[in-house]
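Q: I have 889 residues here and want to know how they pack in 3D. Can you give me a structure?
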Amino acid sequence: MPVVISTAASQPPVPEAGRVQGLSSAEALRRLASQGPNVLPQSDGRSGLRIMRSVLAEPMLLLLVGASTVHLLLGDPADAAILGVSVFLVVGLTFYQQYRSERALEALRELGNPMARVRRDGRILSLPSRDIVPGDVLLLSEGDRVPADARLLTDGATAGDQALQLDESLLTGESVAVRRASGMAAQDRVHAGTLVVSGHATAEVTATGADTAIGRIGTSMQHLRTPPTPMQRQIRRAVLVFSALALAASTLVAVLHFLLHRDWLQAALAGVTLAMANVPEEFPVVLSVFLALGAWRMARHRALVRRPPAIEALGAVTVLCVDKTGTLTENRMAVAELVTGGDRSSLPDHLSPDLRDLLESADAASADDAVDPMESALRTALRGAASATRPPDAQRVAEYPLTPELLAVGHAWRLPGRADIGIFCKGAPEAVALLCGLPEVQRAAVLGEVAAMGRRGLRVLAVAASPVGAGLCSPPASLRDCPLQWRGLVGFADPLRAGVPEAVREATTAGIRVLMLTGDHPETARAIAAQAGIPSDTVAVGDAIFSHDKDDIVRKLGDTHVFARIKPELKLALVQALQASGHVVAMTGDGVNDAPALMAAHVGVAMGARGTDVAREASSIVLLDDNFVTIVHAIRRGRIIYDNIVRAVRYILAVHVPITGLALLPLLLGEPLVLLPLHVVCLELIIDPASTLVFEREAGAPDIMRRPPRSPRHRMLNAPLLLESLGQGGLAFVAVIVLYLLGRSQDLPVQQTGTLAFVALVICNLSLIVTNRIGAEQEPWWRRRNPVFWVIAASALLLLASVTFLAGPSRWFGFERPPLSLLAVALVLPPLLLGSAEWLRQRWLRRPAHFAAGQWSTCPAGREPIDPGQYASADEMGSSGPPSHGESL
């Protein structure tokens, strides 16, 4: 229910335009019914049930369900249970990700739903902003969040104009408050979501809901969806391809076995065994587990991952689009420079008397409870400089507000120890210079100094004060009647965040182009970019970028790193243009204006502490500490995860070669089957945790941030990767064949020959894990901290001992203990063969080898970063090397 607010003297004076009756309650209800509530656009109707249906239709999930069902029908409840748990984990994680993404618009609605003061039926009411309708008369004062787009009204009581200072950073990206005044057609509009930092005014609502500026942003977000990452698409295709191949091979084996032996039971058993050995359920599990655990690790380092697949895409980023305000900078004003006469200082220590007087005079021209960011900065600077504050018995006797004709504010004080009144003024340098009556030469010198400070990215205010003994017994009617004396200039800056230059340098070394997108003035953007280490020779400005054709835009994107006066729709267009050029784009931001670009980018990175709910909900990753350096750590983690996923994929492909070979070998030799479903289940109990937990824990190579990004056109599952996997798997199969043939050559019983082959297969499995852990590490693999590997190795050896030497397990597996000499060969031959091959490969390369994405290349330390845009193909890009022991996030 609306709350009637008392019109006590504590409330700001209501001008004549606000004393009108306003809308009647009946008329307001009629408009609310016809035009709808003042809420932002609804999403496109993706309910929880609809999201669940889309999740259940995922090909990877269907394959997991199918594999689990097959294992259950074959009487393998343990493996079926493992896959069943994986099914629930994948369903839950995917559903949560998609459901959370739908909350972006809900957060956007909440931002625009504060309480508002309006005049209805001649009374001042406080009511939820969702009940605001066009035509309502709003009463705005300091600290209010504007609930709807509106037009400022003229003060009918004094026939004067009203002015507000508004913080529009959430909408435009500008960190400094802007002035809005009635009576000026171009500046009398205020927008929903902006914050009043000073002044009082009345305004007539002109637009609500979807028709507001924020509403139009919300409309543009409705149909945007974060695209799948490159690895997601590749894994999805790989699962489909390998599933089809496994099904075809299993059917062929079953038919071939029947044609050779005329035994349907054995034929079906051979086909099912081969299908179980080749169903690619590890691929989706590996992707889900790696990304989920990667998200957990990043959360421990203050980076909340809302969509885990974005971690992998972050490691492939070629362009990082950075919003200046609140991302590179702290989104606050700070006094950066004081200038008076020939004296200059950057705070806070050792101020001369003239500079101290300048700072104190500027503070005396400010409000007591500072809402304006510049006034807050002055108060902070005074505390840092240990300067004198206003005496407790000082009295403010008059205020001179900002007007369109005079861009300056003043305050009159009756100070203890002074017989006259002191006037203190601050404002635009040109206005204050005129008030002080500076000679033309001095005025030109002042404006030249102001221009130089502006080129350094500073916002500049001039300060003046009445001289002691001016003889003012009462405050003059206006500042123009005050005898003012020039004090100097105060330069304000939105400070760069600590560590930003180092983070930008590391990203550049990693071959990532850093682009700054801001709504600020070009010179301010240039100055901040220079401080951050971003090339700022060329600054592209706003709409001028898109006045050219698409080819010109692409060329502009290729040689420009700083973009100023960028509106929200231009940020989105720039991101989409970069994506169309083949780049993997990450976008950082914290405001409402950033939300569409955050959603459209491959990776949206929002600021958590200072950012809006809209930006956080639209993003893939939220930085809880608002630390730009954390983005670089996240990029490093993304590259490590990609390398480790490739290791796991290579291992999975390699380990299935000897399994498939041992399933086919007896068939080709006319012997009884060696591998049965139970054997394959036991092998999967080693393969699954090895492919997920062991490789996931591997740390990154020391030079992982000195490599260029992967080309957007690069395929993880390419020919080199497949050849390497088949080569490793082929060597492992050779070891298995040798043991199998040794058993047959000595006329061992089938059970003993099967035991030898199975032992060799398990040892090959462990050897392949070790081989794929070897890379460019600075220390031996056995010294690196990875306890999961030792747990798996100990469990596998315990399994072998059980099925070889214990009667019960041997009987279940159909095994018998072979001669100890052959058993020793089975334990030694696989690691010897695979280890020798790896040693020869390293010797052949003659320098540390780097494996990633199935390619081997050499990466000398200290090389220059390479622009990813120059690559015409994945082969030209090279590789990104294997991770090794080193610092990880």
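Q: Anything worth noting?
A: The chain is about 50% helix and 15% strand. The longest helix spans residues 628-669.
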